[in-house]
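Try this one yourself first.
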């Protein structure tokens, strides 16, 4: 089972911050997706649920009311872990446009000092 973690941004993890800004329907869609994905091994994280992007960063893909949401993150820092780095929406391109760059920058920070930049999540059935 994959352990879910999140980048710490100013003392708050990015998942909690994002959740606090979303409607219940959007939060529920991600909860369903993550409850499914975390029970898969890494090789089970494939389209349409997940897709790799670049520099080791990928996207958890979900849609609510014709809006494509993307939870960007990477596998790590340890084996069988996935760390969320940033959230965006996507039509033809990401909003914000630099979403992947932000996620890659945060991945690098986590790889340098995971204790400082990562928190284990306690949601979506994970304790």
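Now uncover the answer:
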């Amino acid at each position: 089972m994959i352990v879910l973690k999140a980048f710490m941004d100013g003392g708050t993890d990015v998942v909690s911050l994002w959740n606090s800004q979303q409607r219940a329907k959007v939060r529920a869609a991600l909860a369903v997706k993550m409850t499914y994905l975390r029970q898969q091994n890494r090789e089970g994280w494939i389209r349409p649920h997940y897709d790799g992007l670049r520099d080791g960063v990928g996207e958890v893909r979900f849609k609510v009311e014709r809006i494509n949401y993307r939870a960007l993150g990477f596998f790590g820092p340890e084996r069988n872990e996935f760390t969320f780095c940033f959230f965006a929406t996507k039509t033809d391109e990401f909003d914000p446009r630099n979403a992947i760059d932000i996620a890659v920058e945060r991945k690098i920070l986590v790889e340098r000092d995971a204790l400082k930049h990562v928190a284990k999540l306690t949601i979506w059935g994970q304790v």
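Discussion: The first strand starts at residue 3 and ends at 9. Residues 69 and 89 are 4 Å apart (CA to CA).
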